[in-house]
Amino acid sequence: MKAITASGKIDPSGQLSLDYPIEGTPPKPVRVIILFDETDGEVNKFWEQVSNYQQQPLLSAKQLQEGLKQALTESGYDSREKIIELVQDIKQEIAQERQGKQT
């Protein structure tokens, strides 16, 4: 694993953007460690929200399954065939995005 130091900003929606691009790095997932000034009230509020979120109990597999089933049904995917069609559409979209990035 390689470490690179860079500076950036977190926007109001929580997205991190770097001040300058990191040259010579391929586009791929990375791990990020964020260092910030602890006296900033807004930053402290953000980390308090993160901490509160992390303390929420995880859903069991059954709860997750039921929630997904309910969300799919509410969105009109109420049959196995419709769900399979949705998955196929998503796979096609991902393939098209990958093709676009390669060109």
Describe this structure in words.
The structure is a single chain. This protein starts with 7 loop residues before the first strand and ends with a helix. The mean pLDDT is 84. The chain is built from three helices and two strands. The radius of gyration is 20 Å and the shape is flat. Strands 1-2 form a two-stranded antiparallel ribbon. It has two domains: 8-54, no CATH class; 61-102, no CATH class. With 103 residues, the chain is mostly helical. Strand 1 (8-10) and strand 2 (16-18) form a beta hairpin. Helices cover 50% and strands 6% of the residues.
Poorly predicted runs: none
Count of extended strands: 2
The amount of beta strand, in percent, is: 5-15%
Oligomer: single chain
Task: Quote the average pLDDT.
Answer: 84
Helix fraction, binned, reads 40-55%
Class based on secondary structure composition and strand pairing: mainly alpha
Termini gap: 29 Å
Which value, in Å, is the CA radius of gyration?
20 Å
Total number of helical segments?
3
Query: What summary fits the major beta sheet?
Result: 2 strands, antiparallel
Q: Please state how the strands of the largest beta sheet are arranged side by side.
A: 1-2
* Global shape: flat
Layout of strands and helices, then pairs:
Blueprint: E1 8-10, E2 16-18, H1 41-54, H2 61-74, H3 80-102
Antiparallel strand pairs: 1-2
Give the gist of this structure.
This protein has 103 residues and is mainly alpha-helical. It has two domains: 8-54, no CATH class; 61-102, no CATH class. 50% of the residues lie in helices and 6% in strands.
